[in-house]
Amino acid sequence: MLSRLVLVSGSALKGSGPLGAGLVHASRSLHTSSQSLAPVPPLPEKGGKVRHGLFPEELFQLLYPKTGVTGPYMLGTGLLVYLLSKEIYVINHETIAAISIGSVIVYAVKKFGPSVAAFADKLNDDKVAKAQEVKDLAMTNLVQAIEDEKKEQWRTEGRSMLFDAKRNNVAMLLETNYRERLHTVTNEVKRRLDYQIALQNLHRQMEQEHMIRWVEKSVVGSITPQQEKESIAKCITDLKALAKATQAKAAV
Amino acid sequence: MAGRRAALKTIDWLAFAERVPPNQRTMFNNLKTRSDAISAKLTGLPEKPAAIDWAYYRSAVAKAGMVDEFEKKFSTLTVPEPVDTQTSLINTQEAESNKTATAYIEASKARITQYEKELEKFRNMIPFDQMTIEDLNETFPETKLDKEKYPYWPHKPIADL
């Protein structure tokens, strides 16, 4: 209780501290250690422990070394008896009201405290989770973007291949053209020579035919009718002789 | 004759294909088909034309000296190589593309450093459940509530809540 009192008065003083940076010393009068700009330590998970819903655990720990486990209870009982017997605290109807309201409050806090705390924590956790999601998404996007940039850089390194391909194409086309020219030259020369040969052959053929025809014509013209008669008579006698020879052969 | 042979470099089409970004794929395919057609045409042509059988012609053609004259002229004939007009153009194109590529790589590196910086900022951030509102405003300046523009709570237009 006493430690709580100190804390409460300290925060009240701080809160009601006068405005303006110049008077900050008055509001910081209860700070015993020097100021540090370190980040705020994480908030404690649970509130301060209390015994019987009212009395902070620190009191029991404070008195334990000197008076053991029952010390605070003895202190409490003695204090209560002293206050009642000396009538420093007078019992009236407010006492009954205080006892009933107090017990209801303590019971309610004990019963519903954890669930209310869990609910509030869940609200906070949702907010934190959303922020965390945003952060994770941003980080993965950045990593992906870095990967993509590196990939694009690697891609540009292949640009020389494109120009090699183009130069190759040009060289191949030139080579093809050159070869075609060579072939054309050879073919043309061959054609001319072949034409000469064909021309010669044609000449010779025509001369031959002409000569043959001329010889035939002259031979046919030179056969006089007298010679024709003689040749026919000779043919007939030859035939007769032949016929006699074959008849004789057939008979044998 | 000397300039002809050395020009052809072997191109690794597979490695080339890997480096092509997807939006330029059709151009790459067109280039490849054209190159293949040209090289097919080249390999289809024999390197030297068939030799002319001069002895046969000498014996066959009657005209005196004609074959000899043809042979002499043919052996002294040199076919001019086709003039290369495109290689210099390609070289200038390559120089230009090298320039743009280096500029692009510089810009890309600048982008990478920027991304790395932001990534560092995210990595070194304190966890959200240990932050105060001031820490949040420092890390994400866009969450800072503008108390001059909107002096009354909630310090932002109602529609943004």
UniProtKB/TrEMBL annotation, chain A:
Q: Name one GO cellular component term.
A: proton-transporting ATP synthase complex
| Recorded GO MF terms | proton-transporting ATP synthase activity, rotational mechanism
Query: Can you say where in the cell this protein is located?
Result: Mitochondrion; Mitochondrion inner membrane
One family from Pfam that matches here is Mt_ATP-synt_B
Q: Which UniProt keywords apply?
A: Acetylation, CF(0), Hydrogen ion transport, Ion transport, Membrane, Mitochondrion, Mitochondrion inner membrane, Transit peptide, Transport
The subunit structure is: F-type ATPases have 2 components, CF(1) - the catalytic core - and CF(0) - the membrane proton channel. CF(1) and CF(0) have multiple subunits.
Q: What does this protein do?
A: Subunit b, of the mitochondrial membrane ATP synthase complex (F(1)F(0) ATP synthase or Complex V) that produces ATP from ADP in the presence of a proton gradient across the membrane which is generated by electron transport complexes of the respiratory chain. ATP synthase complex consist of a soluble F(1) head domain - the catalytic core - and a membrane F(1) domain - the membrane proton channel. These two domains are linked by a central stalk rotating inside the F(1) region and a stationary peripheral stalk.
Q: Which protein family is it in?
A: Belongs to the eukaryotic ATPase B chain family.
Protein name as it appears in the record: ATP synthase subunit b
Whose protein is this, by species?
Stegastes partitus
UniProtKB/TrEMBL annotation, chain B:
Single GO MF descriptor: proton transmembrane transporter activity
Q: Name one Pfam family in it.
A: Mt_ATP-synt_D
Locations listed in the record: Mitochondrion inner membrane
**Primary location class:** mitochondrion
Which biological process annotations from GO are given for this protein?
A: proton motive force-driven ATP synthesis
Domain of life, per UniProt, equals Eukaryota
Q: What does this protein do?
A: Mitochondrial membrane ATP synthase (F(1)F(0) ATP synthase or Complex V) produces ATP from ADP in the presence of a proton gradient across the membrane which is generated by electron transport complexes of the respiratory chain. F-type ATPases consist of two structural domains, F(1) - containing the extramembraneous catalytic core, and F(0) - containing the membrane proton channel, linked together by a central stalk and a peripheral stalk. During catalysis, ATP synthesis in the catalytic domain of F(1) is coupled via a rotary mechanism of the central stalk subunits to proton translocation.
Q: What is this protein called?
A: ATP synthase subunit d, mitochondrial
Q: Which organism is it from?
A: Stegastes partitus
* Taxonomic lineage: Eukaryota, Metazoa, Chordata, Craniata, Vertebrata
Q: Which gene encodes it?
A: LOC103361245
